[in-house]
Each structure stands twice: as C-alpha cells, then as structure tokens.
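Let's do one together. I've listed all components of the complex below, 1006 residues spread over two lines.
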Amino acid sequence: MTFRRKILAGLLPALAALALWAPSSGAQQPKEVKVGLLVPLSGIYARPGAVMRMGAEMGVEHINAQGGIKSLGGAKLKLVVLDSGDSTEKAKAAAQRMVAQETDLVVATGSYLSSFTLAVTEVTERAKLPVLTLSYSDQITERGFKYIFQTSATSGSQAEQSLPELMKLAVAAGGARPKTVAIITDNTAASISSVKPMKERLLKELGLELAVDETFTPPLSDATPLVQRVRAAKPDLLFFLPTVISDAKLMLEKMNEFGLGQGKVPTISFGIAIAEPDMLKTMTPELLQGVMAVVGNWGGKGHEKLIAELKQKYNEPWMTQNAISTYGDMWIMKSALEKAGKADREAVAEALRKMDDGPAKNYPGGEMKFDDKGRRVGAGLTIIQWQKGVPVVVYPSNLAVSQAIWPKK
Amino acid sequence: MPALRSLLPVLAFAAVYAAIALVVTNNYYQLMLTLVLVWAIFGLSWNVLSGYTGLVSFGHAAFFGIGAYTTALGQIYFDVSPWFLIPVAAAFGAIAGLLIGFPTFRLRSHYFALAMLAYPLALYYVFEWLGYQEITLPMKRENAASYMQFADHRVYTLVALAMLVVVMLATRMIEGSRFGMALLAIKQNEAAAEAAGIDALAWKLRAITVSGAIGSAVGGFYAVVLLVVTPVSVFGMLVSAQALTVTMFGGVGTVWGPVIGSAVLIPLAETLQAHLGARFPGIHGVIYGLAIVVVILVAPEGVFWKARDHLRRRRPLPAADAGPAPAPLPALSPLSVGAAANDPAPAARAEAGRVLLEVRGLTKSFGGLRAVQDVSFQVREGEILGIIGPNGAGKTTAFNLLNGFLKPDAGEVLLDGTSMVGRKPHALSAAGVGRTFQIMRPFPRMSVADNVVVGAYVHALTDAEARRSAAEAIRRVGLAAVAQRLAGGLTTKELRLMELARALAGKPRILLLDETLAGLGQAEAAEVIQVIRSLAGQGATIVIIEHTMHAMVRLVDRFVVLDHGAVLAEGAPEAITRDPRVIEAYLGRKWSAHAAD
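Okay, and this is what the predicted structure of the assembly comes out as:
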C-alpha cells in the first residue's frame, strides 16, 4: 500500500504508464473488502466531512469487531478515505481517481454537499460502482441512475413530511394547531428547494396562511426589518432557513430583543447547520434555546452507546446526521456484502437493489429497502430542538429523548 | 514559409500531447489531461485581454459561467447538443465581452480590475435567483457521443486539445498581426499607442470580445466535462483566479504561458490534494500556495520568460544577430556636422515650402498658471523648426497641444488648413502627425522591427504593407543591421533612432520630436542630428522641441523661442543666438549684457 502510494506521488506521465498495471483481485476470497468514503476533508466543508469519517470509522470498527463479513469468510472491511475537496471539480476528480485507482473498491458513500454528490455519481454511475449518500437533493435520484442509493428523505419529501409532522408535534406538545406561517429564507440551493414546495402547494393543502414571505441574500447586514415583520404578523410558526452562521446569529439576537425568542414563536430551520456544535462558539445556549430544525437523521433514543463512544473517542458532543448516517451506511454495506457473497461491485449493487432488511436502524422511519430510483423506502425525518445548549430529538417519538418546548394554548 | 514555422511548435506540442493522451487508459489521469487543457484555454482567454493589454481582469469567470450555463440549460430545456451549444456559448461570450467592455474600459489599471470583479459576482446571484443553484446535464445512454458524452475519456482530451490548438493558433495570429501589436502598444503605454495612430478603445473592445468568446466556449466545455454546474463552480472567485494563476505562473503575454502554467499547476494541485488531502487535510493548499509564491518571486514574469531569458543568455548570438557588424552610420566627427550646418540649402528649401502647420493664438491654463499664452507660428513644408526655451517655458504643454494630448482653452492648430483642435491622438496620427516621446517607450521584449511595425499600421492596410513601411523606416534611420535584435538590448542612441523610425513608419506629413537629443553624448547627438537632417533632406517636415540650444543650432532652419508661455523670439539660428532677450532668458541679465558687447 505504502509502496503504491509512493509511486502515486510521482509525476503524471510516469503514473499513466503505471496505471496500466492494476492489481487484479484474485479468485480466492479476499482477507479484506475495501469500501470507500469520499467526503470533503479540506476546504470549507472539511468539518462535516471529518464527522462523516468518524461515523464511518466507528461503523467499520464495530463490524470488524463482530467478525467482519461472514459470507466472505470473515473478511474485514477496510475503509478507503478520499478527499472531495471544496469544489465540484475536485469532487469529480476525486471520484475519477477512486474508480480508476481503487479498482477493488466494491461500494462507497459520500459526498455531503448535494452538488458534490451529483458530480461524484456522474462518475460512479458510469463505472458501475454503487454509492450510498445522505445528501438530500431530489435530483440525485431523479436522473435514472442505477448505482446510487439515497438513505435520507429527499428535500422534496422532507418538505412534504415536515409540515404535517410539525402539526402533530404542536398538538403533542400541548399547543394549538398552527394557522399562520412566516417564511424567512436565504437564497441558497438547499434553502430554496426546501421552501418552494411549501409555498407552491403544501401550505394551502394544510389550510395554513402565509403571513410573511421574505428571501434574503447572505450575509445579512441587519435583521431588524425581517423581525419587525414577524412581530407584526404574529405567525404561529416561523420557518427560518439560514446557511451562514452569522445570519442565524443576527436573526436570533433580534428575535430575543423583540421578545420573540426562546420558542415563543416556534422557529424551525431545515438541515443540520443550525445544530452543529460550532453554533455554540458564537452563540449562547440561551439564544439558541427553543430553535428547532428538521433534519434527515440525528442520534437519539437507542443510540446512547454510540453517542457516548463518539464523545469519548472524538470529543464530539452529540451525534449529527453526518455521523449517524455514515455509521449506518457501513452497516448497509455489510448487509449487502453478506447477501452478495462476493466482493464485487455489480453483486453488491444488485444486493442493495434487492435489500429488504425490515424496519430502519440508524435512520428515522421507513425500511431498509430502496425503491427503483434508489431512494430508501419510507425515509422519514427527525425534528430536533435546542434545549439547554444541546440539540435533542423531539420527534418522532421512537427516537425522541425530550418533549418539545412549544407555546401552550 | 515563416508563418508555418511559427505554428510548428504549437502543432508539435499538440501531437505530443495527443500521443500521451492516447496511451493513458486510466480515466483519472485522462481527466487531469482534459482539465489541464480546459484551464490552459481559459488562461489564454484571459491572456488575450489582460496579458496583451495589461488591463488585469479579475472577472473572467463571468464569461466562463455564461458559457457553462448556456451549454447546460440549452441541453436541459431544448435537448440541444453541446456540439452546437458551445459555439452558441462563444457567441454569447463575445456579446457579453462587448457589453462588459464598453462601460468598463472607461476605467484604467486597478479601477478596471476591481470593476471586472463585479460582473461574475452579479451573475452569480442572478443565476441563484433564477433557481439554477445546481443543474446537471442529463445523461444520454443512447447516442451519447452526439451529446459529447464519451465512454472513452480520451475523446474529451482530444476535443479539448483541438479547442486549445485553435485558440493557440488564433492567439499566435493575433500576436503577429496589427491586432496583437496594437494591444502590446496599449499595454506599454496607451498614450504612446494613441500617438502611433492606434484607436485604443476599439482594439480593447475587439480583445475583450475575442477573450469573452474563448472564455465562454471553454466554460461550455467545462460543463460537459463536469456534468454539474453550480454558480460557485463557474462564477466563483476561484474560477477567475484560476485564469490569473495559470497565466501569471506560466508567463503573461505569450501563447505558451497559460499552457505551461496549467500543465504544471493543475496536476500539482490535484496530486497534492489526492495524496495529502485525506491524511493532512488542508496542507496541500499551503504547499500549493508556497510553490506559487516561490515561483513568482524567482520568475515574476512567469516561467516562460525566465526560461527564455536564461536560454538567450546561454547562447548570446542567435543567427539573426550574427550578421554583419552593425555600422549603420558613417562615422561623423563634430566638425563634419558643423560643416553640414553651414550648408545653406535647408534655409532655401524652407523658404520655398508652403505652410503645412499653422498655430494661431494657442492658449492653455492650468488653474491660475497660464502655461501657454497666445502662441502663434507657422511650419513650412520641408522645414526643421526648433522650439526651444528654458525650463518651465511651456514647451511640453505647447507640444501636447499640438499632438492632441491636451485641449487648448483658445486658439487653433491647422494642419494643411484643417483644424485639429479636439481630435484624439490616434486621429491626429491618422491625419499625418507623428511624434516621439521625451521619455522613450520601447517595447523591450519585441524586436526593433516589431517595435516599428506598431507605428506603421496607421496607414498600412495589410500586415505585409506595414512590414514594408517599417523596414523602410528602419533603413532610413540606419538601424537595418539591428532590426531583429530585442529592443531591450539597445543603446540610448539606438532607442532614440528606433522611436524616430516608429514615428516615420506611419508616413507622417509632419514629425513632432520631443527632446530627441536628451541623454545623448556629443558624438551620439551628432549621429542623431545627422539622421534628422537626412530625413529633412528627403523632404520631411519636422518640429523639434529641445531644452538645450547648443545642439539645435546645427540642426534647425528656424527657431521659435518660448519663455513664460509666450513666444519670445522667432528667426534663423544665427539671429536667435545673438538675440539679447534669448540670452537673458537662458542665462540671466548679466550674460545678455556681456553678449551685447
């Protein structure tokens, strides 16, 4: 391995010739099976990438400790980590490198940002390498690709699910059923795709009135006009979708100043950005108290041991979607390998397509099964809320570790 | 055929690159080979505008992104193939270039650079607002090649290589034609270029149009290669920076610069990322940055120029310079020049000529300072008129009023009866007013011949005609032996003569010379004087401004003496040198009294 690495550090033309000589996988059962992790480890997305790596390493460790892949004579999983960098170009190059040089890789997971996953899977699809992803974008599984498996509910599906689920949550927490809604969003890809179906259809279907509708371009210089509009309209729910931490901070500070914070106007975000540990570096727990987020996955009830291990090993205070989903991906890979009975891309892909492992573990809602598009059947979502400086799962009830803070009737 | 010979390196490079691409079967390396070409082409796009004109653009991503989105959206919404969309993208890029250039060229240097920054930023938000945060080119499972989707990745490299060769040849053609000469002249000194008859705005607009077309075409191809287009990946700051980085690293203002830069930096960055990225996240950025810093420190103009200078120094006598020893001028002693000054012919000639240039009541003030007041004189055809005066007499201001760099507050400048007031320098040059500069503006990396050709384009319709005029002008000033040498290696005297040739090459009707003798030793001045005299002997009309009277006495037919912005005296050299007012103005009252004795 190190020998090969050394060669790779050489120059391009020299490598080109060498690349013709590729290690061929022998006919006998391998002692280890290589699985890939292609995530951003450098640049501005390095932090979520690092957390995904933690989840993957824990997953591989647990699987190997329990005897590896039994149908392959106890072959151990070996994680191959690749850096997708901070641009689609780098992500695509890394994917190309993965399929060209890690020829004995049988399955991979990645690549955090939807646009990276889109670029990466353009390569892996053509190389027929199955890839799992936690990215939300509907497009990922709308291109008719056969080798992509999306474990999270898509953005469209999350938007679809989140409103009814929030209605249920409100009632369960002892509040009234919301009637009016405010939406304040920035204009980034993820945010826009989350609010679009709401505004176009879902609010109407649920009989909700859109009282405030504001879109801003990050970074925000002053949140006062936005908060004033919220105060004037007094909505029952506020959807707030920032991407930049400073925007979230400005907005929450103003909300508190105007007496709308601490969950007095239930404030809901989408995605894990607002629940990252980094938030506490710039904001106090009081400021964040009550802020909710709809996320694809989160470590909650039943994951206590994992969370404790993550904390002890990597000093991560809680288990975000990046850690738990990537951990879960390792187990999906294991299951597929067991069924495939051989370390082969096509066999693993086929096993993933035919997988039917019952109720989901490590993911909210649904089953361990993928539909024709490669979407996990019945993929649900998780609602988390900042409570005393920790984002805790408050919905669904089988994962919830705490009751939601919600204004009482 | 010389044109073919200059294309040979490009074709040889392409052949070698194609051969490498064909033997590489690893798709990862093949992608690198493709991306090297993509960024080389984009670097060349930047180079056409910024490398040749010197106007640094920080916003080339605007063109790149327009091309990428044209190609992606065209295929998504209209199912049109990139084979057709990339040329369309090039057309859009050209239009965008015009639209961007027209307002932005009002700004110069760093103001221009900063203004360019705004365009991709604005487009970034426009495309976000339009809802195109993430788009992918639909995968074609059938007929893929007709949509530029190739299973064999070598084809991408070959397509990119074909694009690169076209762009390199186009750049080469621009470099060698009046287009490139005009841009280089603008880069060195826009004022001098205008004086040489170059319409700077028009050429700059052409440059940004070509640059935009190339940038958009390669942006379109990039979309095809990556298959995913996001605003940040095509309009982002780093995209614009990439064009600058590869070109500055490889060499600005040469067709090889972007190619060298891209061929080194793209694989280097990727190799570092691939091998260090996962183990020491971020360290590759540090190493990459340091590598660029070191190279820029060692070779500030880029690898290409450094290497070329190094090679030239290693073999100092290339074939072109090894010709017969340069002996352009007969050795003249000051005595023989003095003898020539006694020749009565010039004065007689001047008397006979008709009035070519007439200045009437020329006045110019800067705030409270009246630099030139009510100056009038005439220049006859075939005459050498000297304008002299002590420091601060208003000579340079008067000169700039004549050649269009300043607009007079009052008065008229008539060339052959036509008013020239308010015309731009390049228009004046086209009308037949040639000039040289007090501070020489050679284009040091160009040969003497190329330097002179810049001035020849004013009247030449074809490149060949311009070359002929330039060669003729070079012969007339006696620089034929050093015509192929780089201007950077000339002596001050030779530079003065080259400037003279550049002005002559435009076949001016009247030649304005600004302190042509400044900085020359006596013997050298004598040689230059001899050349100017021989020009006059061939019928040229010359106005020469000079601070010192000494050398001029032997040269001119007539003097106009300025002092405090006004005409103090006018007349033949002998009369002027004895005029007490002139002596007083130059030397003070004491000396004028002395002279009167």
